[in-house]
Write a structure and sequence with these properties.
This protein is of the alpha+beta class. It has helices at 8-15, 38-55, 83-95; strands at 22-24, 28-34, 60-63, 67-72.
Length: 102
């Protein structure tokens, strides 16, 4: 089943409910989390990877010294932003504070 791209107004509306997330390039939602240490950032990265495997939807995930950056879009919707992206973003946002993320 192919996910349907969300219209720009719907993307903007949904971003209002996801603090820290932004639309980048018109075709992806993104956020960078800051963490207290590299180990905390690595632990969040592993947690995100587990969530991605669970929901079978994978973001571009970048581990920095004390940062974790995500860029999410749905490839099987032509690289557009879909409901799947917002569901993943919400799951990540829910677990990030337990790792000390800001």
């Amino acid at each position: 089943m192919t996910a349907e791209p969300l219209p720009p107004a719907e993307i903007d509306r949904r971003l209002e409910n996801l603090p820290g997330w932004t639309l980048e390039g018109g075709d992806r939602i993104a956020r960078t989390f800051r963490l207290p240490s590299h180990l905390a950032a690595a632990a969040l990265t592993v947690h995100i990877a587990a969530i991605q495997d669970e929901v079978n939807h994978h973001a571009e995930l970048t581990l920095g010294y004390n940062t974790v950056a995500l860029s999410v879009r749905t490839h099987d919707a032509g690289g557009a932003v879909t409901e799947k992206d917002f569901a993943l973003a919400a799951r990540v946002s829910a677990v990030a504070p337990a790792h000390g993320a800001e």
